[in-house]
Amino acid sequence: MDALGKIYSTTTIVTMNAKEKANGIAIAWITRVSINPPMIAISVGKTRYSHTLLNETDRFGVCIMRPEAEKLVNFFGSKSGRDIDKFAELDYEKSPSGIPIVPGTLAYIECTIKEKADAGDHTIFIGEVVLQKLFGNDKPLLYGEHSMLNPWLRD
Ligand SMILES: Cc1cc2nc3c(=O)[nH]c(=O)nc-3n(C[C@H](O)[C@H](O)[C@H](O)COP(=O)(O)O)c2cc1C
């Protein structure tokens, strides 16, 4: 494992609803970037279907996942919305603006997209926080070198 593996991150499922097409993607590359206004950044691979959808909408949801939600994170992080509807068999809620909130969410943050930055094979989407919901006070699922989650960096 290289030094970059020592960067541990909060594991999330980022959801969106672009042109009536809902999708979600497991995202570990996420961070806060501004206090006032509150803003966060997510890094999304250019080949992901979610990358296409995020370019067709101005809003995304961040579902910060509970440790028990590993299986669902692996599902959203190994299948593409290009091939399947990841919500087809899922009993999920929607935010007031219609963005999916998946089961196993510990905290939900909804953002409007303010900036996009090119970063090699990824794009960084910077969002301003417009809604926050806390469903519990436990620690979230983390992603790092010893993670049991799907080793997505190899794909
Ligand atoms: C734990 C975990 C974390 C991930 N983090 C990211 C990430 O930060 N950025 C990214 O582009 N892909 C990440 N992935 C890979 C995508 O979730 C995966 O390629 C997904 O199938 C893309 O779905 P889509 O084509 O429907 O957008 C991660 C996967 C897993 C399992």
From TrEMBL:
Pfam family name, one: Flavin_Reduct
Keyword Flavoprotein: yes
Keyword terms, alphabetized: Flavoprotein
Annotated Flavin reductase like domain residues: 4-147
Essential cofactor(s): FMN
InterPro entries found in the cross-reference section: Flavin_Rdtase-like_dom, Flavoredoxin, Split_barrel_FMN-bd
GO molecular function list: FMN binding; oxidoreductase activity, acting on the CH-NH group of donors, NAD or NADP as acceptor
Family affiliation: Belongs to the flavoredoxin family.
Full protein name: Flavin oxidoreductase
Organism expressing this protein natively: Kosmotoga arenicorallina S304
